[in-house]
């Protein structure tokens, strides 16, 4: 189980780092946008800070996953991001739904594996 944890953690870390670096350096070409995505993109562009903040969170959490340090904190910080990635790919862009499901389920797997670190959050 320890090897599976390291494998999933490293794979998610690489995905998060890759996606944030491609955003900051414009390495991927723009996709063909449908009408739903254009409406969503207008909202993202209107809030100037949101995408750079999300991609910075992805980068920091990806580095944390790869290094194995602060993984417990990174699991909680990247959870809303992974939920948003899943919903975006489920409702707007179904091309990368498998990758989004992997990131989301992998995040929950890591939360399960590090559950002993979260127990104190749920005690009265």
UniProtKB/TrEMBL annotation:
Q: Which domain of life is it from?
A: Bacteria
Q: Keywords on this record?
A: Membrane, Transmembrane, Transmembrane helix
**Listed transmembrane segments:** 7-28, 48-66, 73-91, 97-115
User: What is the protein named?
Assistant: DoxX family protein
Q: Which organism is it from?
A: Flavobacterium laiguense
